[in-house]
Write a structure and sequence with these properties.
By secondary structure, the protein is α/β, with parallel strands linked by helices. It has 7 helices and 8 strands. The strands form 2 sheets. It has a 6-stranded parallel sheet. Helix 1 packs parallel to helix 3. The longest helix is centred in the last third of the chain and has 10 residues. The chain is globular.
């Protein structure tokens, strides 16, 4: 099961989704995501234990919201690009032992301090830290710790940081 293209999502919506109350009306699902039309919200929430992919690009969630997402142990793919999370939010993700891909792009408050949490995520196969405040040196330390993981940085893309 996948939830993609979540619009208008914030901590309140994440809390409702994870705790089984369904997705509040303020958050709409569209595109290739799960369509709630004609489906009971509680029925959808009951299937969160089988959720493999969650796309939260641009959601307005805090570290508390990330902590709720981290309770979905089945997740294998998580997109948190542009969510304004920080190192504390990254640390919450260490509970996701099955996570294979993680996109943290465009979260400027993620710094070198996040390396300590990320290096313990040994199932990761792909990680993007493009557009974060993580330095190239820290990303290299992370690559050394997770040699099987493709760590994408601005330097890897060939563009200079401002």
């Amino acid at each position: 099961m996948q939830l993609n293209d979540l619009i208008g999502l914030d901590d309140t919506c994440i809390d409702a989704l994870v705790r089984g109350a369904g997705v509040p009306p303020a958050a709409a699902l569209s595109g290739s995501g799960v369509d709630h039309a004609g489906e009971s919200h509680s029925r959808e929430s009951a299937r969160l234990t089988k959720l493999l992919r969650l796309e939260l690009r641009g959601a307005e969630i805090t570290s508390a919201g990330v902590a709720l997402v981290a309770t979905i142990g089945s997740l294998q793919h998580l997109n948190l690009a542009g969510c304004e999370i920080d190192d504390r939010g990254v640390a919450e993700l260490t509970a996701l032992k099955n996570l294979r891909t993680l996109d943290l792009s465009d979260n400027r408050d993620i710094t070198d301090a996040a390396v300590d949490a990320l290096r313990g995520m040994t199932a990761l196969q792909q990680l993007s830290v493009v557009g974060t405040s993580m330095t190239v040196a820290a990303a290299e330390r992370l690559r050394a710790r997770l040699p099987h993981c493709d760590v994408r940085t601005v330097a890897q893309l060939g563009s200079a940081r401002p």
